[in-house]
Amino acid sequence: MPELPEVEALSAFLTEHLVGREIGRIHPVAINVLKTYDPPVTALQGRTVDAVGRRGKFLVISAGDLHLVVHLARAGWLRWQQKLPAAPPRPGKGPLALRVQLADDPATGFDLTEAGTQKRLAVYCVTDPEQVPGIARLGPDPLDPAFTATELHQLLAGEKRQLKGVLRDQSVLAGIGNAYSDEILHAAKMSPFKLAARLSEAETATLHAAIGDTLRDAVERSRGLAAGELKAEKKTGLRVHGRTGQPCPVCGDTIREVSFADSSLQYCPTCQTGGKPLADRRFSKLLK
């Protein structure tokens, strides 16, 4: 799933390639991706893009008083194209969900695609990004310079949930998903099952630093890359997520995994849990 660093990089890429150019044609191929209908997404045709930005994991393409808001979800992606076919795309069973062609060069534009059978890619056309429910409920952006360790401590106070779940909650912090929550907790040397409310001020400061350092490093690694290169860059930069059975790059212990119904987490026992493996919550209580 694209998370804050990848969406930030996509925003930067589109700022360079899209801002100042007029939208020609918009082809909604998979109607189910459209979450708003008034104004229609085709109302953006003929408008000039004046800004591209990010809100959490949402990409916002602005053209005057209209905004194309995209949430790529788990399996969605944006593919920049410079050789689009002349014929309009036809609805079908392929991954293509929506195509945007530029007016000055109809062969140039971008496709929104989604792999797999679970279709969660979401596209909105709104007059204010805050009209998108997912944006309206976002918590603070962890890369905002105004976001301090004190604010994080206040957000975690009273949270009876585990750190892993809290970090992924977009209403608490905007933009962190499954992969970077694993990376942040590994950098902070904290168990994913530690209760958020139990963090001391010193531990919160450590977590705050790990959040900032991990996300900024990922953004920096992605800087200047083309949209099609971002997925591979994300994978190569991860130290524990998706690396079950491999040695921890810090201590050499074997990276372990806990599986859930629709996701999994990875961690290093030596770095994060005092050498103790975590139990699978589907069958037993966690080991503290």
Automatic annotation (TrEMBL):
Gene3D superfamilies: 1.10.8.50, MutM-like, N-terminal. Keywords: DNA damage, DNA repair, DNA-binding, Glycosidase, Hydrolase, Lyase, Metal-binding, Multifunctional enzyme, Zinc, Zinc-finger. One of its GO terms (biological process) is base-excision repair. It catalyses: Hydrolysis of DNA containing ring-opened 7-methylguanine residues, releasing 2,6-diamino-4-hydroxy-5-(N-methyl)formamidopyrimidine. Residues 2-93 form the Formamidopyrimidine-DNA glycosylase catalytic domain. It holds the Pfam family zf-FPG_IleRS. This is Fpg/Nei family DNA glycosylase.
